[in-house]
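1st attempt posting a full record on here, be nice pls
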Amino acid sequence: MESLSIQQTQASLRTVHFTPNARTLRKAREQVKMMVADGASLYQIKNYLSRWLYWWLKTAMIWNDDELASQYIKSCRDPRAANIAAFVFQLNTIESRNGIHHECATELARGA
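the predicted structure (as tokens):
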């Protein structure tokens, strides 16, 4: 029996794609739904989804941020909720890569 090297094992683990539990996604969707109903700002929703994404990435350590964000967006049944999530995760990516400040993100959200 041939043993696998550490690199081969790590490479094979990276190709396995895990999907989050449906309840995990549902709870996040419901939280955002309640925030919208309560009149939360886009910044507050972005903050919640960013923290949710970060927590799951650190806890599970099996997803990358794009993969988990994509799973969340795909789980949204309401197109408006999916659009908000896509916008929020896109802003999160832009901010982390280019250092855009909150004021710029707010201007983008307003459509300015």
